[in-house]
Amino acid sequence: MVLTLRELAQIVPFVKSARQKKNFLLLCALSYVDRPLYPDVRYNLSAVSDANALLEYRFDVAGIRRLAYLLGLPAVVITKRRYRVTRDEAMCVLLGRLAFPVRFHTMTKTFGRSRAALCEIFAHVVGEIYDRWKSLMYFNDRLVRENMDTYCQAVHAKGAPLSNVYGFIDGTKLQTCLDTNVYTASTTKRSRPPMEFASTSLDPWKGADTTPPCCA
Hints:
The radius of gyration is 26 Å and the shape is elongated. It is of the alpha+beta class. It folds into three domains: 1-34, no CATH class; 45-136, no CATH class; 141-201, no CATH class. It has a two-stranded antiparallel ribbon. It has a two-stranded antiparallel ribbon with strand order 3-4. 44% of the residues lie in helices and 12% in strands.
């Protein structure tokens, strides 16, 4: 027998003895319905060809699904702000962001989600994977801490406007050499192609309760 919450509330005043309390708790347990989690499905990985998947995510469709499963992601990923996505879509958001420097604004056209949603999904998946596998990761924290000031001084001495930048990852432009016989398609003048890096600084982002500033 399954009772509604209103019916259970009407029974409470009559629960007196220990046996009645036991039976009442049993009725509560039987009345609980474990509702399935329905994710907001907007991206269908099955509709993506292996050729496009390799170009966009560097894995084919089967590889993306296998990677997400082996990394231990749940079938339905739920973020702190209650965004619900399937495991396949969450992995595609992660791989799409890491495969090539791309803005979340551009990714909205692929996944049909806002920049804030994509940013939180990406950050959530990164955090979940790191928490699960951090024991297998290595980063020489002691070396960086001991030499961070030296790194910052070296970067600043090279002309960086900031004095707290100690490293670079994919993002900021840096000029590189170009063969003298190579010209751009839009002009006859020689140009220098840039390599892109993004800097890491001493000042960590402290807005933990708001959307992080990665929603470019």
